């Protein structure tokens, strides 16, 4: 099975959209990041961690919407699902891949939510003489700079 080309995706966009729509309904209901943080604070159940892994997806940009492009990522906190368009000799298919993290942020999560779950708990450590680091990794145009500068 090969990854679908841009032309193949455009040609079969309706079929891919239908696959995503059907499979979104099958995914578990997402917990909001704020609810998870509130529960951890209330129960004091968050373990001390040296590393917290978070995933963030951005909304489609205006130029992407103008081209009638569609998102192939779904956030169901704490997991992120990627719908990958592929092409077989029998026609278009799509696979789903799940990525697990401590938190997953979707387009509906603003920078304040990301700050609360990530940078906020690093600040007391740094001010107390410790070392803290936030690391952003991803494709060009995926929102790393936007996220990091908003956390300053």
UniProtKB/TrEMBL annotation:
- Endpoints of the signal sequence: none
Which residues are recorded as binding ATP? 138-145
Q: Please provide, alphabetically and separated by semicolons, the GO molecular function terms listed in this UniProt record.
A: ATP binding; hydrolase activity; microtubule binding; microtubule motor activity
Q: Which UniProt keywords apply?
A: ATP-binding, Coiled coil, Hydrolase, Motor protein, Nucleotide-binding
GO terms for biological process? microtubule-based movement
Listed Pfam families: Kinesin
Q: In what residue span(s) does the Kinesin motor domain sit?
A: 50-152
- InterPro entries given for it? Kinesin-like_fam, Kinesin_motor_dom, Kinesin_motor_dom_sf, P-loop_NTPase
Similarity comment text for this entry: Belongs to the TRAFAC class myosin-kinesin ATPase superfamily. Kinesin family.
What is the protein name stated in its UniProt record? Answer: P-loop containing nucleoside triphosphate hydrolase protein
